[in-house]
């Protein structure tokens, strides 16, 4: 259980730390279906903050193009912000709507001591968010930053479709592993290790489901 407050600040953005809330998180599995009953969700925060990245072993990039409408990702951000030895950045808060001119050198510097890069985003049109994609285009460029080599890539995504939908027999006809092929290929291309994705299928905004999602994320970020 990590109950420490983190000193959230980021020289690249003028976003102060948002409120930290404590929550009771239990142990959880890897893939979580919606609707499961779990301990009640505690209060939420806007989660815009970016912790000090010095020496952080886990870099978390969270993105949502419509944060004001988000329920599920917002709940995940609360846990991600408090992950041990991790740096959390809310992409839209840090970078706004800018789709280019990221500071490639600064981002590469962040990768040096990192062991794991975590992307948290809602699946929209079976893809990354525009800002995450723009970040990869700009920072990873046409070639792979060598600092990524050997590091882990963990994808955390929420979907409207159910686990059944994401199956060969389901309405979509593709598994989530197949849908995530571009990121798996990107991991291969950059020399990263593609970790088993954490997928919240049929993501539901009821407090019991949110609590379960939070538990699962907490376990993976421990
Ligand atoms: C523009 C848009 C596109 C979406 N595309 C997909 C999709 O391709 N596959 C899917 O399973 N869900 C899709 N959804 C549902 C979202 O994934 C779901 O609402 C989201 O993960 C819930 O998280 P949030 O509360 O943080 O927004 C889409 C939703 C929107 C608004």
Automatic annotation (TrEMBL):
PROSITE patterns in UniProt: TAT
Family matches, as Pfam families: Flavodoxin_2 (PF02525)
Q: Which Gene3D superfamilies match?
A: 3.40.50.360
Q: Does the keyword Magnesium apply?
A: no
Top-level taxon in the UniProt lineage: Bacteria
- Respond yes or no to whether keyword Cell cycle is given for this record: no
Q: Give TM segment ranges.
A: none
Domain named Flavodoxin-like fold: which ranges?
57-217
Instruction: Name the PANTHER family on file.
Output: GLUTATHIONE-REGULATED POTASSIUM-EFFLUX SYSTEM ANCILLARY PROTEIN KEFG
Know the name of this protein? NAD(P)H-dependent oxidoreductase
């Amino acid at each position: 259980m990590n109950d420490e407050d983190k000193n959230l600040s980021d020289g690249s953005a003028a976003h102060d730390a948002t409120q930290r809330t404590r929550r009771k998180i239990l142990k959880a599995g890897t893939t979580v279906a919606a609707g499961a009953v779990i301990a009640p969700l505690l209060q939420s925060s806007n989660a815009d903050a970016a912790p000090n990245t010095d020496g952080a072993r886990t870099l978390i990039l969270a993105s949502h193009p419509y944060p004001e409408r988000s329920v599920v990702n917002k709940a995940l951000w609360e846990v991600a912000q408090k992950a041990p030895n991790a740096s959390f950045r809310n992409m839209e808060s840090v970078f706004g709507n800018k789709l280019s001119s990221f500071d490639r050198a600064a981002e590469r510097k962040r990768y040096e001591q990192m062991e794991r890069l975590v992307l948290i985003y809602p699946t929209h049109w079976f893809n990354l968010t525009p800002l995450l994609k723009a970040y990869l285009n700009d920072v990873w460029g046409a070639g792979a930053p060598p600092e990524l080599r050997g590091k882990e890539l963990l994808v955390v995504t929420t979907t409207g479709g159910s686990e059944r939908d994401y199956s060969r027999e389901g309405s979509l006809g593709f598994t989530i592993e197949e849908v995530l092929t571009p990121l798996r290929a990107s991991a291969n291309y950059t020399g990263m290790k593609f970790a088993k994705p954490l997928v919240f299928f049929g993501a539901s905004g009821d407090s019991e489901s949110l609590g379960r999602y939070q538990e699962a994320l907490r376990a993976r970020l421990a």
